[in-house]
Specification:
Layout: E1 11-12, H1 16-19, E2 36-38, E3 44-48, H2 65-76, E4 84-88, H3 100-118, E5 122-126, H4 128-134, H5 142-145, E6 150-152, E7 155-160, H6 163-168, H7 173-189
Parallel strand pairs: 3-4, 3-5, 5-7
Antiparallel strand pairs: 1-2, 2-4, 6-7
Amino acid sequence: MEGFNPRLLKEEPPPPFAVQCQKCELSNHRERVIWGEGNPSAKIFILLDNPGMREDAEGNPFVCGTRETLQRGILDAGMELDNVYISYLLKCRPKRAYNKPLARDACFSHFQHQLAEKNPRLLLGLGNTVVETLFPHSDADVKSLRGRWHIFEDIPVAFSYHPLAIRRRPVLHKYFIEDLKLLAQEALKYGLIEN
């Protein structure tokens, strides 16, 4: 996309119960809780595994590669960044090794709170970690679920590859765009975006 400039999306302030959360070890080395970003009123909810960096080593704001790839994909699929809300299974950015299953279990109630509060019409999960968390009793992965709609807690959900996987394996980019276009088509059908 010619002239594409990724932007740092506005973070939604986390609720006090999330800021005070001590349910897992991430609370011991977090700088802050990242509840979500983008349009908090959007009815398209995009879910990733955990938040990436938003500042460089000197504390200057920047858009990480994951966010850049996702934003470019959203625009390439015909949507606007204001059409989506982006959040994470984990609400704290991990800085070192941690017990991943325990942290996901601890944060899952925060994700469920968000779903109840935001009442999204469509959900897009990015990456195998999200698939495994939403469908823990199956052998599903992105490859087996992508390209069609499923249901999670009465919400239509589609899946695609994590933007970091797209950056590491560019051959996946076409599938990523196909999945975002599937999301855009469904969003158009629901009147969540304009043609």
